[in-house]
User: Fold Glutamine-dependent NAD(+) synthetase from Podilymbus podiceps.
Amino acid sequence: MGRAVTVATCALNQWALDFEGNLERIFRSIDIAKSRGARYRLGPELEICGYGCSDHFYESDTLLHSFQVLAKLLESPATQDIICDVGMPVLHRNVRYNCRVIFLNKKILLIRPKISLANAGNYRELRWFTPWNRARHVEEYFLPRIIQEVTGQETVPFGDGVLATKDTCLGAEICEELWAPNSPHIEMGLDGVEIFTNSSGSHHVLRKAHTRVDLVNSATAKNGGIYVLANQKGCDGDRLYYDGCAMISMNGETVAQGSQFSLNDVEVLVATLDLEDVRSYRAEISSRNLAATKVNPYPRVKVNFALSCSDDVAVPTCMPIQWRHHSPEEEISLGPACWLWDYLRRSKQAGFLLPLSGGIDSSATACIVYSMCHQVCLAVKNGNAEVLADARKIVNDETYLPEDPREFCKRIFTTCYMASENSSQDTCNRAKLLAEQIGSYHINLNIDAAVKAIVGIFCMVTGRTPRFSVYGGSSRENLALQNVQARVRMVLAYLFAQLTLWTRGMPGGLLVLGSANVDESLRGYLTKYDCSSADINPIGGISKTDLKNFIQYCIENFQLTALRSIMSAPPTAELEPLVDGQVAQTDEADMGMTYTELSIYGKLRKITKAGPYSMFCKLINMWKEICTPREVASKVKHFFRMYSVNRHKMTTLTPSYHAENYSPDDNRFDLRPFLYNTTWSWQFRCIDKQVNALCFLYGLIFEVLT
Assistant:
């Protein structure tokens, strides 16, 4: 009777505007799906042009090339006898929509525009697209001639409709619609849709994967049905890493799980499921059935095709599985490593250079590169020909075989310890030992000559000699002398990145890696145009607390024993003179706050949307056991003063891997002024008024009790 349907979904490493590469990956996913018996194939959001085209969506070229790719797909024998669901932008009556184009055997069945656009955080879809606001309405779309010549169709259905095949009914959602409170799958399910599809462009954030999985499973837990989710994967040209996790769920349980982090450009999941399981599941939910009798029907596009076979009694079906989530430390080890690999191979550079200070942040960055080398060697061992080809191009050796992560690291990763008279021997030794253990090509150099030359020019011009505060200098002199050291390191980092391989008789240049964490960026505890100014930064969206846990993970999983002494040492910039040969400067003392406090401030400011007064009100309860209201007020004021004084630094922040929802990235995620009234006079006066009221109240309570 036809009850076992076989469907396929995929995670593709698409690249914005790489139409040729995107087409090849789409074809490959269709071939794999068909070879495994699938009759329906779902791809990621905007997979033809790439999700991250941004303002290129305004260009008519993007629309033209998307239709050219669609024509190639339609006319190819590879797409015969399988329903293909692909994503691309479509201009309908001079309005641009984010669409799914669903076709079968050279005929377009339906163009389904996105209804709920993602427009928060990193997403700006309303800038480029318009949501389809005509619920359950389908109208004619006039195809461009390039498509008419292939399909023989002049018009096709466009709008909020569903597909009715011979054996079931399919309805599409697009990414954000799953997250919306009124998700289309609710009404579609009540109207008899049995298979829901979702094409996503969902990026990685630490500890986010379970939310997506829960949403998918809950979509069919109350209403029954099969839910098929596809997602973009990899770095498609900016700060985000799309983390795959393609999945298939039925009646509230996962039946197929894709990888979250992988160097495979194409990953296809196929599942065979029994439609009768959906029907019997729904049949006993009386509340669902009562609601179904009142639902407004969706326009149905009839499809003379079945996802099942007539004789499928003996066909085995998939059983529920337990989803395996990565720990945050595993996510840090894998996500930024995959992002770095995509950036390296697509930028056609020969490797990375990292100023390695012997502290936690730069060491964590080094460990991520080492993890990337592990992933490359593992992928090659598992037969990934693309990764092998990319590795050979990077090292410029057509016979090279990356088998040992340390050996591969030596070829593509240069670390550089830039000592000054303020550097300790301890940090020098730590950097050297870590470099030895991960296998990087390590350089030791001293910047004192360059620093003295620059300060000497100033002294010659002005006749004044700045001094560190320990030698009687002012705070202005002290800070300026620290900044000169930091900026010299940035200049030297780029010089060595461009010419180090030249000195070794090797072609190409290196990408400079930054290593400022999200908390330091939020506080502005960095020198503008110092070593935080790099090409990319894999830890710029990760907190100090998470980085410390990641370092411990690397000690245990990579056996990098050099990290033990790095973990135990207090974080320091080493920009002020040593005292008796020992470091006297520490980060937390300089900042006037701890890294733990910074994480809390960051989450309250960005995620909870708290200004100074609201933050104070929340913290007097959170910290009531450890701080008085006056102490809390002092801490909040200090944070907001420092945050606002240093906000201008965020405008030049190195592009960083996005991993935290309280990132201060000024590019598009955290849009704020960079010139503030740093007195916060009105806001701080409200805090003071509340502090005085609380002190008066506590005084009255004390009098009553005594």
